[in-house]
Design brief:
The longest helix is centred in the last third of the chain and has 21 residues. Helix 4 runs antiparallel to helix 12. This protein has 2 domains: 205 residues, Alpha-Beta Complex (Aspartate Aminotransferase, domain 1); 251 residues, Type I PLP-dependent aspartate aminotransferase-like (Major domain) (Aspartate Aminotransferase, domain 2, 3-Layer(aba) Sandwich). It starts with a helix and ends with a helix. It is an alpha/beta fold and 469 residues long. The strands form 3 sheets. Strands 4-11-10-9-7-5-6 form a 7-stranded mixed β-sheet, sandwiched between helices. A hairpin with a 2-residue loop joins strand 12 and strand 13.
Length: 469
C-alpha cells in the first residue's frame, strides 16, 4: 500500500467515532481471558509487590494483566497455563528464524559448555560478527558493539557530535530511539514534546530539535535556524517512519534529510534496530539506496539473545571511537560483545542469509496483509486496514497513534482510541493471537498457512462482536 493511500485511510478512521465492543460482550471476553490465564494472574498479583507495576516489559499486553509465558517454538508461544498463541510479537522484532531455532541454540549451548559466558576480554567472535554485518550493510565499514539499542542510540549521538564538532540533534516526532534522557521527546506521537519525560530535567532537551514527520519546511528551517546556535550534528530517524512505520514517511522524506545533511555538514543516523535484517538483510539503507553515515542496530543482531546492540558506520566517522584518552568518545559496557552475544550474531545472520529468512517472512506478511484487508473489506463501516513494510505489519483499527495534537480534544481522543484498541487486543489474546500494542505484527520465516487461517478466524470473530453502524 502506497504512502498516499495509507494516509487517506488513516484520516478516514480518524474522521469517525471509534467502534467499541459492547460492554456485555467485552465483559464476557474479559472473563474468558481471566479463566484461561489464572496462573498468569497469580504471578502478576505477587509480582506487584516486588516489581514496579508488576511487569518488566513495555511490549507486553498489560491490561487487564500481563501474560506470564512458559516457552516458545517456531511461530508459537505458550503461557504458564498451557494456552497456545500465534506469535506476531516476535520478542519485539528480532526473531526471524523462528523461536528456539535449534541450529542457533545448539551453537550457543556449545559455547557456554566449552568456553564460558564471558571474560571481559576480546574474543574472535567479535570479528566474525562484525564481518557479517559489514558484508550485508552498505553504509557500514566499522562496528562497535554495545548492550542494547538504547546504548547504541546514545553512542550514535555522541559520535555525531564528536565528529562534526556541532551540538544539535534533530529528532523526528513519533520516533523511538531508546529511553535515554535526551531521546524521550515526542515519543510515540508527534508534537507531544516532554509529555512522557517525567524525571528528566528540561535542560536535557536543550540541544534536541523536535521536527514533525514529513514537515519539509520545518526540517529545512531547523538546519538554518541552528546554524549559528551550535549547528546540527546529525538527524536521527527511523527510515520507514516512527514506531517502525506507524508514522509512515513520504517517499521523498529520507532523500530530503540526506540532502540537507550533506548541505550543512551534518550526519544522517539511521536507527535500524527494527528494519536492519528484517526489512532487508542490508537494512532500509540497502532497500531504499539511501546510505546513512551512522547505523544503529539492536536486538535483532543476536536473534533475541541478550546484551545486543551496535553502532556502526563508515571508518572516517567511527574513528572518533578510537585514539588515546581525551581524544575519543567514551563508551563502555563490561558485557558488551561477550562471546555468547557475538556468536549469536554471527550464526544468526549466517542462518538468515542461508535460509532467505527475510524473503520468507516478507512473503507471508504480504499474504496476511492482503487476506486481512479482504476480511476487513467485508466491514466497510469500520474502515480497518493493514499495510506492511516487508515483514513489518501495521493494522489500523482506531489510529490512536495518528491523532493531530492541534485538535481541541486530542488527549481525550488518544486515550479513548487507545482503550478501544486495547479491548480488541484482549479479545485476540483470549483466543490465541499475540501482537504488539494492538497495532503491529512481526512475521518470521516459519509462519505458515495454519497461522494465516487461525489469524483470520480470530479477526473474523472480533469483527462479529462489533455492531454494524
Amino acid at each position: 500500500m502506497e504512502y498516499a493511500e495509507i494516509m487517506k485511510r488513516k484520516d478516514a478512521i480518524l474522521s469517525q467515532p471509534v467502534h467499541p465492543i459492547p460492554k456485555d460482550k467485552l465483559a464476557s471476553e474479559q472473563k474468558l481471558y481471566a479463566e484461561r490465564c489464572k496462573r498468569s494472574i497469580e504471578i502478576f498479583e505477587k509480582a506487584k509487590g516486588m516489581i514496579p507495576g508488576g511487569v518488566e516489559h513495555n511490549l507486553s499486553q498489560n491490561k487487564p494483566f500481563p501474560l506470564a509465558m512458559d516457552r516458545a517454538k517456531g511461530y508459537k508461544i505458550w503461557d504458564v497455563d498451557g494456552n497456545e498463541y500465534i506469535d506476531y510479537l516476535m520478542c519485539g522484532a528480532p526473531i526471524m528464524l523462528g523461536h528456539s531455532y535449534e541450529p542457533l541454540d545448539e551453537k550457543i549451548v556449545e559455547i557456554i559448555r566449552q568456553k564460558g559466558p564471558a571474560t571481559g576480554l576480546t574474543s574472535e567472535y567479535e570479528l566474525l560478527a562484525a564481518e557479517e554485518i559489514i558484508k550485508h550493510m552498505p553504509g557500514v565499514e566499522m562496528v562497535r558493539f554495545l548492550q542494547s539499542g538504547t546504548e547504541a542510540d546514545m553512542a550514535a549521538l555522541r559520535i555525531a557530535r564528536a565528529y562534526t564538532g556541532k551540538v544539535k540533534i534533530i529528532k523526528i516526532g513519533g520516533s523511538y530511539h531508546g529511553w535515554s534522557d535526551q531521546m524521550i521527546c515526542s515519543v510515540h506521537i508527534p508534537r507531544t514534546g516532554n509529555f512522557e519525560a517525567k524525571g528528566i530535567p528540561a535542560e536535557c532537551f536543550t540541544h534536541i530539535v523536535d521536527v514533525a514527520p514529513n514537515d519539509f519546511e520545518a526540517l529545512e528551517a531547523a538546519f538554518k535556524d541552528h546554524q549559528d546556535k551550535g549547528g546540527v550534528a546529525g538527524v536521527i530517524v527511523e527510515p520507514i517512519g516512527g514506531e517502525s512505520g506507524a508514522h509512515p514517511v513520504h517517499p521523498d522524506w529520507n532523500k530530503a534529510i540526506r540532502k540537507l545533511c550533506d548541505q550543512y555538514g551534518s550526519l544522517l543516523i539511521f536507527d535500524e534496530v527494527v528494519t536492519g535484517f528484517r526489512l532487508d538483510m542490508g537494512g532500509a539503507q540497502k532497500l531504499y539506496n539511501i546510505i546513512p553515515d551512522i547505523t544503529v542496530l539492536g536486538k535483532i543482531i543476536t536473534h533475541g539473545y541478550p546484551s545486543s546492540g551496535a553502532v556502526a558506520g563508515r571508518k572516517e566517522v567511527m574513528k572518533v571511537c578510537t585514539g588515546s584518552m581525551g581524544e575519543k568518545i567514551f563508551v563502555g559496557g563490561t558485557l558488551a560483545a561477550n562471546p555468547i552475544s557475538m556468536a549469536a550474531c554471527y550464526y544468526a545472520l549466517k542462518y538468515m542469509a542461508e535460509h532467505d529468512a527475510v524473503a520468507k517472512a516478507t512473503t507471508f506478511a504480504n499474504r496476511l496483509t492482503q487476506a486481512l484487508n479482504d476480511l476487513y473489506a467485508t466491514r466497510p463501516d469500520l474502515g480497518f486496514f493493514v499495510y506492511n513494510y516487508g515483514a513489518i505489519m501495521h493494522y489500523m483499527t482506531t489510529a490512536f497513534f495518528s491523532i493531530d495534537l492541534n485538535t481541541p480534544d486530542a488527549l481525550t481522543q488518544i486515550f479513548t482510541r487507545k482503550q478501544v484498541a486495547d479491548d480488541y487486543q484482549v479479545v485476540t489474546m483470549a483466543h490465541g493471537l499475540c501482537t504488539l500494542a494492538g497495532t503491529r505484527m512481526y512475521t518470521c520465516m516459519q509462519h505458515d498457512d495454519e497461522a494465516l487461517k487461525k489469524t483470520l478466524a480470530i479477526w473474523e470473530y472480533v469483527l462479529s462482536l462489533i455492531p454494524r453502524s
